[in-house]
Every structure is written in structure tokens, then in C-alpha cells.
Amino acid sequence: MEYNFINKDTFNKIIEYYITSLPTSKQEKALINLDLLNKIKEILLNPKNNNIYNKITHDWAKKRFKLEEIIPNDYRVIVKASNNPVLAVENMYEVLCQTHAEITQHGGQKQIWK
Known about the structure:
Elements: H1 8-21, H2 24-30, H3 34-45, H4 55-64, E1 65-71, E2 74-79, E3 84-85, H5 89-104, H6 109-113
Antiparallel strand pairs: 1-2, 2-3
């Protein structure tokens, strides 16, 4: 679904600009994509297996995230610092726009001006 107040292409350009404006060393983990989210989940499900990915990613994941079991054998990744679930960048447009639409209860500029 596409929203009136920001289209998906514009949103993706904002995300891309944000990522590329960061130092190269921070770009990979600045916003978590589904691939990295699955790596984090795998690391947390097997915390003693140090052969999963590299040591830096392994230590980073264990330090910053934890798992929450939703139903048996189905987990979501939680940020330890805030106790909030991780929102993968691929889902960000839909979640942010849907939340914006629900909170403001308007359909965009056209509806406001009518």
C-alpha cells in the first residue's frame, strides 16, 4: 500500500541518504534489514556457537539484543536498551506510515484542505 503523505520511492531515498551519510563502518548496522535480523536471531538462538558469523557481529548481537518467545519456537528480536521489538528496514515504510495515519487520522494534504 502507498500513502498520500509520502510515497515509497521518496521514503526509500530518505533511508538511502541516511545510510550513505554515515561512516562506512556504521552503515551495515545502522538500520537492520531482514538478513541481519535473521543473523541476530540465529546468534541468539545459539549463543555458545562462536562460529556463527564473525566475532564482532556475534558480540554485538548478544550485547544489544534478546529474544522474546511469541508462541512456542517463534521468537522476535528485542532491543535490550529500550525493550522494543526490532523493526526491519524492509517493513519500516508500512509500519511508520500506518502508525502516522492512525495517530493523525487524516488521509494526507488533500483531505485536510477539503
